[in-house]
Amino acid sequence: MSRDLRPPVGILHYEIVQEQASALGRMGSALEQSLARLREFDAAHVRAEAPASMQAARRKLVMEAGQALWMFVVQREASGLRDSRHIMRTYNVPGEVQRCMGLVPVPSKPASK
Q: 16, 23, 96, 109 — which has fewest CB within 10 A?
């Protein structure tokens, strides 16, 4: 007598949906954290008077937020949630972060000797 040891399709589907929801939560938290770091930086520094080193640090935060936004949008779309306007409004994503969403930073060249 052979027994079918495969899980029922319903249980497998439930586990997949549960993992998708968990991944969405992690991506949403990562976006919130990166946007909070950017807002904290902006609150602590006057942008117009910032030296080049501060501008580079801010640009890095913007790129990190753009990457977090990209990961969240992709995960949502993979789950069937295609309209990202809701994310932009809910998380109050700055336009500059939206514009760099999905961009891969170019590694800097090492200084020549």
A: 109
pTM over 0.85: no
Structural domain range at position 81:
13-99
List C-alpha distances in Å: 4 to 7, 8, 45, 63, 68: 8, 10, 64, 50, 42
Structural domain contains residue 49: yes
Weakest mean pLDDT among 27-31, 47-51, 73-77: 47-51
Q: Which position has the higher pLDDT, 1 or 34?
A: 34
Residue 5 within a domain: no
